[in-house]
Design brief:
alpha/beta; 5-stranded parallel sheet; 3-stranded parallel sheet; disordered N terminus
């Protein structure tokens, strides 16, 4: 820990006699004024000659109707959250935001097993009507002969302890396995997962899978990349054994074929936002597949008509989710995208991209399914 330094006093020249006197309060006031002035200059925008692409923050100049959706149209189940409440105080803050925005329940994808999962269950147990915890898979000894039976036993134990599902199970194809310490890639159709996925089917535990990343992360990081501002941060470099976007999507399909009795929820629209027809094909072929819309509002809102029609067609298979640390503004932006017909607005700081967004204007019938009814089909199995 760094040592605590005493506040310094500064000598300010007075106007009356020309002498100096120690006046830390005046110095602080002066610094605050200067800081506010600098901030005010920043608010006017940065000079183009000095602007970096990552700092591009456009503001719409159009004078058009704007909506502020304070609460979800129907009580919503957030199907994609994580352990944002790490103590009683944070959980209370989270609940307040949920109450103010009409979020009835949050599915917490802990990815945890063992003692960590038990501790989380204990912490959240008093809020069982508002939070539902999903566990992870135990990868201990995954690279040794005989892996599987112990992992299945731990899955059964977590289920008995209160786990209602499994996730988020990561298969990003980045050359990294289940944790940052494991470098050997495990793919979802790996035979080592077969007994785990089959046990999930037996126990009626849905599985949230994160497959690949969106296509922008695999494109060249140059002036032709449509999503460069965000893609550069999440770039998937084809080294260290990383798999392509297309291969990971094929692996997802293999998994769906192998385990038709297991309910899968593809996180982030299966990272197929650049080509939702792929996900649509899977919906047509595999009735055990659902997808959450979490953390992809910025990717789908720029193409509102196409996405509106896609969600309308597959309204029984898509669920609401956020995957963003809770706050009321975040929830309300997602409602605005789903419920309104607003045009050409930006949420650059929240979603990262520079694209203008448009409301999807989903019907009340579809909103009921997105916010609640489809989630109940999954969680009540």
């Amino acid at each position: 820990m760094l040592p605590v330094q005493k506040s310094k006093s500064y000598k300010i020249k007075t106007m009356s006699n020309g002498n100096f006197e120690t006046r830390p309060d005046k110095c602080i006031t002066f610094l605050v004024i200067i800081s506010l002035f600098c901030l005010s200059m920043i608010s006017y925008g940065q000079s183009v000659d000095e602007l970096k692409l990552k700092d591009y923050r456009p503001k719409s100049i159009y004078k058009i109707p704007l909506s502020n959706v304070a609460c979800a149209k129907y009580p919503a189940i957030d199907m994609h959250t994580h352990v944002y409440g790490r103590n009683e105080e944070e959980i209370a803050e989270w609940l307040k935001a949920m109450d103010n925005c009409g979020i009835e329940k949050a599915i917490v994808l802990t990815g945890a097993t063992g003692e960590r999962f038990d501790n989380l269950m204990k912490m959240y147990s008093k809020y069982a009507d508002r939070f539902e915890l999903w566990c992870g898979f135990d990868y201990t000894g995954y690279d040794q002969p005989g892996y599987g039976p112990d992992a299945v036993k731990e899955l059964e134990r977590c289920h008995k302890s209160g786990a209602k599902g499994v996730g988020e199970v990561m298969f990003k194809g980045k050359g990294i396995g289940p944790s940052s310490r494991i470098k050997t890639i495990m793919l979802p159709d790996d035979p080592r997962f077969d007994p785990l996925f089959e046990k999930c089917a037996e126990l009626k535990l849905p599985v949230n899978l994160h497959i690949s990343e969106d296509k922008w992360m695999y494109e060249k990081m140059d002036s032709t990349n449509d999503g460069l501002i965000n893609a550069y941060k999440w770039e998937v470099k084809m080294d260290n054994g990383a798999r392509s976007h297309e291969e990971m999507i094929d692996r997802l399909e293999n998994t769906l074929k192998k385990h038709p009795n297991t309910t899968f929820v593809a996180a982030h629209l299966a990272n197929c936002c650049a080509d939702l027809s792929v996900l649509g094909l899977f919906f047509d072929k595999y009735p055990n597949l659902y997808a959450d819309i979490s953390a992809r509002y910025g990717e789908i809102a720029p193409i509102p008509k196409f996405v509106h029609d896609f969600i309308e067609k597959f309204q029984d298979r898509i669920v609401y989710g956020t995957d963003m640390t809770f706050n009321e503004r975040m929830y309300r932006v997602t409602f605005r995208v789903l419920e309104t017909a607003d045009e050409h607005f930006y949420e650059t700081d929240m979603f990262g991209y520079h694209w203008p967004l448009y409301g999807l204007g989903m019907s009340e019938e579809v909103l009921k399914k997105l916010y609640r009814e489809n989630a109940l089909k999954i969680t009540n199995r």
